[in-house]
Design a protein that fits this description.
Length: about 425
Amino acid sequence: MSLTSRANAVIPGGVNSPVRAFKSVGGNPLHAVSAEGAILKTADGRELIDFCLSFGPLMLGHAHPDIVSAVQTVAAKGTSFAVTTEAEIEIAELIADAVETVEKVRLVNSGTEAVMTAVRLARGITGRSKVLKFSGCYHGHLDSLLVSAGSGVAGIASASSAGVTPASAAQTVVAPYNDFDAVTALVDEFGDELALIACEPIAANMGLVPPDPKFLLHLREQADRCGALLLFDEVITGFRVTFGGWQNLCCAKPDLTCLGKIIGGGLPIGAVGGPAALMDRLAPEGDVYQAGTLSGNPVSVAAGLANLRRLKADNPYPALAAETERFAAAVKGFAAAKGIDLQVPTEASLFSMFFNPEAPRNFDDVKASKPKPFVKLFHALLERGVYLAPSPFECGFLSTAHTPEVVDKSLEAFEAAFASL
């Protein structure tokens, strides 16, 4: 029996996270057996240049020796204590030193947990219930944020998943990303009920959509105007665009910051951070409860410390950004040679591809992008040894393991793939 058949028999859809099922692109999902550097090895014997990189956390590539050694060393001493370790303190100190607005950090187990904690904290601090979020921005699968815009351009959300109650969805209002007027109108209408404005500072869960100039500053101003807190969800951007958060590069500063993925170097982790005056409202110091037996577990923390220390020492960000720009320009050129409209926006070591005449500014623009060319390109690349995330709504990533030689080899595959379309 094939791995796909075995998986389907005991796991819903054969996967433990939906995008892995290849529903957006068709065909049979991959089954990994190992990976090293930029190469992902599959159960059917393929070696693929990996631009998915576990959806972003692997800044140093797969199985980096520093991270592997750190995990092996600490695992031999114990995998979970439910007692605070010095390493937890060290990673919190490192994060607080690197992210401008963070003085204290609460470690959790995922980005979803981080956002869930931030939402509860904001509600506890403000005494309000509603959250303003943006169409196409994903903040984990907690009920009140697993929503989409209603029938209007902006307004009360509707559930985007079965099992999300109308009461939960009603606690969220939704605006189009980069829409200044919609944000102002929602704050006018719901401002005295808003606990939080939640935003990806660079939208990276609908493909890569940067904020318009001063959009994040507008969010800061609107949060201040109504007394809500401002959250930057930096689960993808934190420590990927720079050592710290995107906020370090931006004029607007959040009240709360969520981190994940990269701070664990590929192991499960998340964090919420902010000024001490806000963070001290969390239990046991304050009245907002949050807990987790595996929060700050020694294995994830060891991997995260090894990853962050290497990034701090090496500062690979300028070189990665330059290589990503070179890669994107070449890919766009291959499309142009075939007369194909393709946008390849980049930010640091992130990129995405939209088969549009112009780069999208919001989720409606993204949904107008043609999906069929992406599906054809995805499979043409897979046949030629290159793996993209199996959805046109996901970003691609480069790591320090994507050397110029690896990128050149991938570009040969891209050129041949576009020629075959």
